[in-house]
Specification:
The protein is an all-alpha fold and about 120 residues long. About 90% of the residues lie in helices and about 0% in strands. The chain has four helices and no strands. The chain is elongated.
């Protein structure tokens, strides 16, 4: 049999807990982004704690490999496209060599002409 004091403290604690829970729910209602973020975090945590079954692995492993292969292919394509873009912006070695040779020839011709005058 409990005395009056113990029952009163339990009632006060219960009322305090209910009040605290009500404030928390109201605050979450005011900030739905926090509610979504908390739900995502909780889902990730539960997903990490629940063991994967063999059927899940059987179904998801090929998908994971396909996604990784596609990501690798996209990265390689981006690398090649960037390389081609740089190659089009910069002159090739042969073109540069020809330009330098032509410039050097023009300088020599100008020097010869200047020496004749």
């Amino acid at each position: 049999m409990s005395n009056g004091k113990g029952g009163g403290a339990a009632n006060q604690n219960g009322a305090s807990n209910r009040s605290s829970a009500r404030r928390t729910v109201e605050e979450l209602g005011e900030n739905p982004v926090a509610l979504v973020a908390g739900g995502v975090a909780l889902g990730v945590l539960i997903g990490m704690l629940v063991p994967r079954v063999a059927k899940e692995r059987e179904l998801l492993d090929p998908l994971g490999r396909q996604l990784a292969d596609r990501a690798t292919a996209v990265a390689q394509a981006a690398k090649e496209a960037g390389k081609q873009e740089i190659d089009t912006l910069l002159p090739g070695k042969d073109a540069t060599k020809e330009r330098v040779s032509a410039l050097f020839g023009n300088v020599l011709n100008a020097a010869k002409e200047a020496a004749k005058s």
